[in-house]
Amino acid sequence: MRAAKSRTMSDMMKEITYMCQNPDCGHVFVASLEVLRTLSMSAMPNPDVRIHVSQHVRNACANQLALKL
To answer: Coil, strand or helix: which one is 38?
Structure first.
């Protein structure tokens, strides 16, 4: 498979068209690529983009804040 083109659906999602490289096959399909959650916080966050923070990151941040008190 080869990604032939993509289309931005939103800041958090793209549609990607894939095509089989085998000319005898001819299979073409569309897949989606979506941002689901943050695993490591950005040092330069964009306030216009809101990404769900994973529970693991929330717990780590809470633990760090508790240590500073």
So the answer is: strand
DSSP summary character for residue 7 = E
Does this model's pTM top 0.85?
no
Cα angle, residue 30 at apex, residues 25 and 36 outer, rounded to 5°: 140
Which amino acid type is present at position 4? Answer: A
Q: Rounded to an integer, what distance in angstroms lies between the CA atom of residue 66 and that of residue 49?
A: 27
**Average pLDDT of the residues in 37-57:** 88
Domain ranges of the chain: 1-35, 37-69
What's the CA gap between 8 and 41, in Å, rounded? 23
Beta carbons of 21 and 33 less than 8 angstroms apart: no
